[in-house]
Amino acid sequence: MPNPGRPFPLRSSSPDALHVLLLTTGSVASVKAPLIVQELLNYENTLVQVVSTKPSMHFFDAGKLEADNLAVGVKVWKDEDEWATWDRMGDPVLHIELRRWADVVLLAPCSANTLAKLAAGLCDNLLTSLLRALTPETPKHLFPAMNTYMYLHPHTSSHLLAAQELGWEVGEPASKALACGDVGMGAMMDWRDICLLVAERYGRRRRYIACNNEMPLAPMRMSR
Ligand SMILES: Cc1cc2nc3c(=O)[nH]c(=O)nc-3n(C[C@H](O)[C@H](O)[C@H](O)COP(=O)(O)O)c2cc1C
């Protein structure tokens, strides 16, 4: 199990803990970030940290997400934190520490912009620096979320192919009425299916059964 670096508020007490790093970008599907975090924390022995781009944080309240999960040390890492935690040679470098901490990386939602940067190897913020620093061995899942015409643009298929060649497993988007009013392909895979994927793939059990209809139910579709 990787050793969390100094910037982290919480060290895993169990050697079996699964460290899930949720990366969110400037898609409207970032509104689901708090739900994804909450559900992942319902799994036994699962710790979560979040890294978000500036546009992503328009879609959820990072302060509330941290406050709601204070006891388990969830933090939403932002671009500013990269430099706030580094002062001189020998200090930990945040995007490297986060990469060391992560057992599994979920890029959910993945915007067209971040997908293009990932495919091209650009790294001009905390999130993309982290993407660039990932080792080939770290399991990586990417969930595109964008307008239908952005999704159908030829760039998207070539960028997704490049991501797959870099070892990313791509979660197929859904077809539905999108937040922008268009109807069609491009919505992020249902957040419950994303959590189910983590549970099934990495052997996590839910600590307790929810008594509402928020339980993951829908089948998931994944492609490599
Ligand atoms: C209200 C709103 C919703 C957006 N939704 C999406 C989206 O679902 N998918 C997407 O790829 N871009 C979307 N964008 C555009 C991105 O936010 C923009 O391309 C941004 O540069 C992405 O930056 P990031 O990849 O660094 O997060 C949206 C923009 C706005 C203003």
TrEMBL record:
One of its GO terms (molecular function) is FMN binding. It comes from the Eukaryota. Signal peptide: none annotated. Pfam families: Flavoprotein. One of its GO terms (cellular component) is phosphopantothenoylcysteine decarboxylase complex. InterPro entries: Flavin_trans-like, Flavoprotein. Keywords: Coenzyme A biosynthesis. GO terms for biological process: coenzyme A biosynthetic process. Residues 19-163 form the Flavoprotein domain. Belongs to the HFCD (homooligomeric flavin containing Cys decarboxylase) superfamily. This is Flavo protein. It comes from Calocera viscosa (strain TUFC12733).
